[in-house]
Amino acid sequence: MRQLPPLSAVRAFEAIARTGSVTRAAEELCRSHGAVSRHLKLLQAHAGVPLFDKEGTGLKLTQAGATFYAAVRSSFDQLENAYERLAREAQGPGLHVACSATFAMRWLVPQLAVFYRDHPDIRIRLSMTSAREMRNEGADLLLAWDLSGYTDADQRRALMLAPVRFGAVCTPDYARRKPADRVRIAHEYTSSAWNQWEAITGEPVAQGGPLAFPHTHLCIEAALSGLGVALVERRLITRELQDGALTAPFGFVPFAGGLRALPATGRGGSAQADAFVAWLRAALAVSAA
Protein backbone atom coordinates (compact mmCIF):
# COMPACT_ATOMS: atom_id res chain seq x y z
CA MET A 1 0.00 0.00 0.00
CA ARG A 2 1.39 3.43 -0.96
CA GLN A 3 2.11 5.86 1.86
CA LEU A 4 1.20 9.15 0.17
CA PRO A 5 0.47 12.57 1.63
CA PRO A 6 -2.99 14.11 1.07
CA LEU A 7 -2.83 14.82 -2.69
CA SER A 8 -5.12 17.85 -2.59
CA ALA A 9 -2.79 19.35 0.02
CA VAL A 10 0.24 18.55 -2.14
CA ARG A 11 -1.39 20.36 -5.06
CA ALA A 12 -1.96 23.41 -2.88
CA PHE A 13 1.65 23.26 -1.64
CA GLU A 14 3.00 23.12 -5.21
CA ALA A 15 0.95 26.14 -6.25
CA ILE A 16 2.06 28.14 -3.19
CA ALA A 17 5.72 27.24 -3.72
CA ARG A 18 5.59 28.10 -7.42
CA THR A 19 3.71 31.39 -7.05
CA GLY A 20 5.19 32.41 -3.69
CA SER A 21 1.78 33.37 -2.34
CA VAL A 22 -1.27 31.71 -0.81
CA THR A 23 -3.44 34.35 -2.46
CA ARG A 24 -2.06 33.69 -5.96
CA ALA A 25 -2.24 29.93 -5.40
CA ALA A 26 -5.88 30.24 -4.35
CA GLU A 27 -6.69 32.26 -7.47
CA GLU A 28 -4.99 29.68 -9.70
CA LEU A 29 -6.74 26.75 -8.02
CA CYS A 30 -10.11 28.58 -7.89
CA ARG A 31 -10.29 28.02 -4.14
CA SER A 32 -10.66 30.39 -1.22
CA HIS A 33 -7.62 31.72 0.62
CA GLY A 34 -8.78 29.92 3.76
CA ALA A 35 -9.15 26.57 2.00
CA VAL A 36 -5.62 26.72 0.56
CA SER A 37 -4.21 27.75 3.96
CA ARG A 38 -5.95 24.77 5.58
CA HIS A 39 -4.46 22.43 2.98
CA LEU A 40 -0.99 23.76 3.77
CA LYS A 41 -1.49 23.35 7.53
CA LEU A 42 -2.75 19.80 6.96
CA LEU A 43 0.30 18.90 4.89
CA GLN A 44 2.74 20.37 7.42
CA ALA A 45 1.00 18.53 10.26
CA HIS A 46 1.05 15.30 8.22
CA ALA A 47 4.77 15.71 7.47
CA GLY A 48 5.64 16.89 10.96
CA VAL A 49 7.91 19.67 9.68
CA PRO A 50 7.36 23.31 8.59
CA LEU A 51 7.57 23.79 4.83
CA PHE A 52 7.50 27.62 4.70
CA ASP A 53 8.79 30.54 6.72
CA LYS A 54 7.19 33.98 6.60
CA GLU A 55 9.20 36.54 4.63
CA GLY A 56 7.72 40.00 4.66
CA THR A 57 4.21 39.68 3.27
CA GLY A 58 5.05 36.43 1.48
CA LEU A 59 6.34 32.93 2.17
CA LYS A 60 9.78 31.37 1.74
CA LEU A 61 10.44 27.65 1.48
CA THR A 62 12.35 26.08 4.34
CA GLN A 63 15.17 23.69 3.50
CA ALA A 64 12.80 20.75 3.97
CA GLY A 65 10.17 22.52 1.87
CA ALA A 66 12.63 23.23 -0.96
CA THR A 67 13.73 19.59 -1.05
CA PHE A 68 10.13 18.38 -1.12
CA TYR A 69 9.15 20.97 -3.75
CA ALA A 70 11.90 19.78 -6.12
CA ALA A 71 10.48 16.25 -5.95
CA VAL A 72 6.86 17.45 -6.27
CA ARG A 73 7.65 19.70 -9.24
CA SER A 74 9.40 16.85 -11.08
CA SER A 75 6.51 14.49 -10.36
CA PHE A 76 3.92 17.02 -11.49
CA ASP A 77 5.88 17.67 -14.70
CA GLN A 78 5.95 13.93 -15.46
CA LEU A 79 2.26 13.58 -14.64
CA GLU A 80 1.36 16.57 -16.83
CA ASN A 81 3.35 15.18 -19.79
CA ALA A 82 1.88 11.70 -19.36
CA TYR A 83 -1.66 13.06 -19.20
CA GLU A 84 -1.07 15.21 -22.28
CA ARG A 85 0.11 12.12 -24.18
CA LEU A 86 -2.94 10.20 -22.96
CA ALA A 87 -5.26 12.95 -24.19
CA ARG A 88 -3.52 13.10 -27.57
CA GLU A 89 -3.74 9.33 -28.02
CA ALA A 90 -7.44 9.41 -27.12
CA GLN A 91 -8.01 11.76 -30.06
CA GLY A 92 -6.68 9.10 -32.43
CA PRO A 93 -3.48 8.96 -34.46
CA GLY A 94 -2.23 12.39 -35.30
CA LEU A 95 0.64 14.81 -35.13
CA HIS A 96 0.71 18.36 -33.75
CA VAL A 97 2.99 20.54 -35.88
CA ALA A 98 3.98 24.16 -35.16
CA CYS A 99 5.31 26.40 -37.92
CA SER A 100 5.13 29.93 -39.21
CA ALA A 101 1.79 31.07 -40.60
CA THR A 102 3.39 31.93 -43.95
CA PHE A 103 4.99 28.50 -44.36
CA ALA A 104 1.71 26.82 -43.41
CA MET A 105 -0.42 28.89 -45.81
CA ARG A 106 1.94 29.05 -48.77
CA TRP A 107 3.59 25.63 -48.75
CA LEU A 108 2.49 23.09 -46.16
CA VAL A 109 -1.32 23.19 -46.37
CA PRO A 110 -1.38 23.05 -50.20
CA GLN A 111 0.83 19.95 -50.00
CA LEU A 112 -1.13 18.10 -47.30
CA ALA A 113 -3.46 16.36 -49.78
CA VAL A 114 -0.45 14.45 -51.07
CA PHE A 115 0.58 13.50 -47.52
CA TYR A 116 -2.93 12.31 -46.63
CA ARG A 117 -3.10 10.23 -49.79
CA ASP A 118 0.06 8.39 -48.74
CA HIS A 119 -0.75 8.37 -45.01
CA PRO A 120 -4.56 8.27 -44.63
CA ASP A 121 -4.36 7.23 -40.96
CA ILE A 122 -2.33 10.25 -39.80
CA ARG A 123 -3.91 13.64 -39.26
CA ILE A 124 -1.86 16.82 -38.90
CA ARG A 125 -2.93 19.48 -36.38
CA LEU A 126 -1.29 22.83 -37.06
CA SER A 127 -0.30 25.68 -34.78
CA MET A 128 0.66 28.71 -36.83
CA THR A 129 2.81 31.23 -35.01
CA SER A 130 5.04 34.18 -35.78
CA ALA A 131 8.81 33.79 -35.57
CA ARG A 132 8.81 35.68 -32.27
CA GLU A 133 6.27 33.33 -30.68
CA MET A 134 7.49 30.09 -32.20
CA ARG A 135 8.01 27.53 -29.46
CA ASN A 136 7.11 23.88 -28.87
CA GLU A 137 3.81 24.88 -27.23
CA GLY A 138 2.36 21.38 -26.95
CA ALA A 139 3.45 20.50 -30.47
CA ASP A 140 5.19 17.26 -31.40
CA LEU A 141 7.32 19.01 -34.03
CA LEU A 142 8.38 22.59 -34.63
CA LEU A 143 9.35 23.54 -38.21
CA ALA A 144 11.66 26.54 -38.65
CA TRP A 145 14.72 27.72 -40.56
CA ASP A 146 15.90 30.15 -37.88
CA LEU A 147 16.59 28.42 -34.55
CA SER A 148 19.03 31.03 -33.29
CA GLY A 149 16.74 31.78 -30.34
CA TYR A 150 16.90 28.20 -29.12
CA THR A 151 19.45 26.51 -26.88
CA ASP A 152 22.51 24.74 -28.28
CA ALA A 153 21.01 21.45 -27.11
CA ASP A 154 17.79 22.11 -29.06
CA GLN A 155 19.74 23.06 -32.16
CA ARG A 156 21.69 19.80 -31.95
CA ARG A 157 18.44 17.81 -31.64
CA ALA A 158 16.87 19.49 -34.67
CA LEU A 159 16.42 17.30 -37.75
CA MET A 160 17.56 18.68 -41.10
CA LEU A 161 14.72 18.78 -43.63
CA ALA A 162 16.02 20.79 -46.58
CA PRO A 163 18.37 23.61 -47.54
CA VAL A 164 16.79 27.06 -47.87
CA ARG A 165 17.48 29.67 -50.56
CA PHE A 166 16.57 33.30 -50.04
CA GLY A 167 16.19 36.00 -52.64
CA ALA A 168 15.65 39.75 -52.61
CA VAL A 169 12.36 40.08 -54.50
CA CYS A 170 10.24 42.95 -55.78
CA THR A 171 8.00 43.82 -58.73
CA PRO A 172 9.68 44.08 -62.15
CA ASP A 173 9.02 47.83 -62.25
CA TYR A 174 10.53 48.32 -58.81
CA ALA A 175 13.64 46.36 -59.82
CA ARG A 176 14.50 49.09 -62.33
CA ARG A 177 15.10 51.60 -59.55
CA LYS A 178 18.58 52.40 -58.29
CA PRO A 179 19.57 50.97 -54.87
CA ALA A 180 19.44 54.45 -53.33
CA ASP A 181 15.78 54.69 -54.36
CA ARG A 182 14.74 51.27 -53.08
CA VAL A 183 13.28 50.48 -49.64
CA ARG A 184 14.26 47.31 -47.79
CA ILE A 185 11.32 45.33 -46.38
CA ALA A 186 12.32 43.50 -43.19
CA HIS A 187 10.72 40.91 -40.92
CA GLU A 188 10.45 42.39 -37.43
CA TYR A 189 11.63 39.24 -35.68
CA THR A 190 14.13 37.72 -38.13
CA SER A 191 16.01 40.85 -39.15
CA SER A 192 19.27 38.87 -39.24
CA ALA A 193 18.15 37.50 -42.63
CA TRP A 194 19.18 40.73 -44.36
CA ASN A 195 22.54 40.65 -42.56
CA GLN A 196 23.12 37.11 -43.84
CA TRP A 197 22.14 38.13 -47.37
CA GLU A 198 24.50 41.10 -47.45
CA ALA A 199 27.37 39.09 -45.92
CA ILE A 200 26.97 36.36 -48.56
CA THR A 201 26.28 38.47 -51.65
CA GLY A 202 27.75 41.86 -50.89
CA GLU A 203 24.89 43.31 -52.95
CA PRO A 204 23.57 46.76 -51.90
CA VAL A 205 20.02 45.81 -52.86
CA ALA A 206 18.25 48.67 -51.13
CA GLN A 207 19.56 51.60 -49.16
CA GLY A 208 16.24 53.00 -47.95
CA GLY A 209 14.07 51.81 -45.09
CA PRO A 210 13.67 49.40 -43.55
CA LEU A 211 9.91 48.95 -43.71
CA ALA A 212 9.15 46.21 -41.15
CA PHE A 213 6.28 43.72 -40.75
CA PRO A 214 5.65 40.95 -38.18
CA HIS A 215 4.92 38.18 -40.71
CA THR A 216 6.64 37.04 -43.90
CA HIS A 217 3.24 36.96 -45.62
CA LEU A 218 2.92 40.71 -45.02
CA CYS A 219 6.44 41.29 -46.33
CA ILE A 220 5.49 39.45 -49.54
CA GLU A 221 2.28 41.46 -49.91
CA ALA A 222 4.24 44.70 -49.40
CA ALA A 223 6.66 43.70 -52.16
CA LEU A 224 3.74 42.82 -54.48
CA SER A 225 2.28 46.27 -53.79
CA GLY A 226 5.49 47.93 -54.92
CA LEU A 227 6.51 49.15 -51.46
CA GLY A 228 10.04 47.78 -51.57
CA VAL A 229 12.32 44.74 -51.73
CA ALA A 230 11.56 41.72 -49.48
CA LEU A 231 13.86 38.85 -48.57
CA VAL A 232 11.94 35.60 -49.04
CA GLU A 233 12.59 31.84 -49.25
CA ARG A 234 12.00 30.68 -52.82
CA ARG A 235 9.38 28.01 -52.04
CA LEU A 236 7.06 30.62 -50.52
CA ILE A 237 6.70 32.65 -53.73
CA THR A 238 6.79 29.99 -56.46
CA ARG A 239 3.51 31.17 -57.98
CA GLU A 240 4.48 34.87 -57.96
CA LEU A 241 7.80 34.09 -59.65
CA GLN A 242 6.11 31.95 -62.31
CA ASP A 243 3.46 34.62 -62.97
CA GLY A 244 6.07 37.36 -63.16
CA ALA A 245 4.45 39.30 -60.34
CA LEU A 246 7.76 39.20 -58.47
CA THR A 247 11.31 38.99 -59.70
CA ALA A 248 14.61 38.21 -57.97
CA PRO A 249 17.20 40.41 -59.75
CA PHE A 250 20.10 38.99 -57.72
CA GLY A 251 18.97 35.37 -57.69
CA PHE A 252 18.60 33.10 -54.66
CA VAL A 253 21.41 32.13 -52.28
CA PRO A 254 21.59 29.35 -49.65
CA PHE A 255 21.34 30.35 -46.00
CA ALA A 256 23.04 28.52 -43.15
CA GLY A 257 21.08 26.01 -41.10
CA GLY A 258 18.31 25.11 -43.51
CA LEU A 259 14.72 24.22 -42.66
CA ARG A 260 14.69 21.94 -39.62
CA ALA A 261 12.24 19.99 -37.48
CA LEU A 262 12.64 20.26 -33.72
CA PRO A 263 10.94 17.44 -31.77
CA ALA A 264 9.33 18.35 -28.46
CA THR A 265 11.58 17.76 -25.47
CA GLY A 266 11.04 14.49 -23.66
CA ARG A 267 8.50 13.03 -26.08
CA GLY A 268 10.80 10.78 -28.06
CA GLY A 269 10.18 9.76 -31.61
CA SER A 270 6.98 8.23 -32.97
CA ALA A 271 6.05 6.39 -36.14
CA GLN A 272 3.80 9.31 -37.14
CA ALA A 273 6.57 11.89 -36.66
CA ASP A 274 9.09 9.74 -38.54
CA ALA A 275 6.67 9.34 -41.45
CA PHE A 276 5.93 13.07 -41.58
CA VAL A 277 9.61 14.05 -41.45
CA ALA A 278 10.44 11.59 -44.24
CA TRP A 279 7.60 12.96 -46.38
CA LEU A 280 8.67 16.56 -45.70
CA ARG A 281 12.20 15.85 -46.85
CA ALA A 282 11.00 14.29 -50.09
CA ALA A 283 8.37 16.97 -50.82
CA LEU A 284 10.72 19.86 -50.04
CA ALA A 285 13.36 18.39 -52.34
CA VAL A 286 10.84 18.23 -55.19
CA SER A 287 9.60 21.79 -54.62
CA ALA A 288 13.18 23.08 -54.65
CA ALA A 289 13.87 21.66 -58.10
TrEMBL record:
<dbReference type="GO" id="GO:0006351">
    <property type="term" value="P:DNA-templated transcription"/>
</dbReference>
<comment type="similarity">
    <text>Belongs to the LysR transcriptional regulatory family.</text>
</comment>
<keyword id="KW-0805">Transcription regulation</keyword>
<keyword id="KW-0238">DNA-binding</keyword>
<dbReference type="InterPro" id="IPR058163">
    <property type="entry name" value="LysR-type_TF_proteobact-type"/>
</dbReference>
<dbReference type="InterPro" id="IPR036390">
    <property type="entry name" value="WH_DNA-bd_sf"/>
</dbReference>
<dbReference type="InterPro" id="IPR036388">
    <property type="entry name" value="WH-like_DNA-bd_sf"/>
</dbReference>
<dbReference type="InterPro" id="IPR005119">
    <property type="entry name" value="LysR_subst-bd"/>
</dbReference>
<keyword id="KW-0804">Transcription</keyword>
<dbReference type="GO" id="GO:0043565">
    <property type="term" value="F:sequence-specific DNA binding"/>
</dbReference>
<dbReference type="GO" id="GO:0003700">
    <property type="term" value="F:DNA-binding transcription factor activity"/>
</dbReference>
<dbReference type="InterPro" id="IPR000847">
    <property type="entry name" value="LysR_HTH_N"/>
</dbReference>
<protein>
    <submittedName>
        <fullName>HTH-type transcriptional regulator TrpI</fullName>
    </submittedName>
</protein>
<dbReference type="Pfam" id="PF03466">
    <property type="entry name" value="LysR_substrate"/>
</dbReference>
<feature type="domain" description="HTH lysR-type">
    <location>
        <begin position="5"/>
        <end position="62"/>
    </location>
</feature>
<dbReference type="Pfam" id="PF00126">
    <property type="entry name" value="HTH_1"/>
</dbReference>
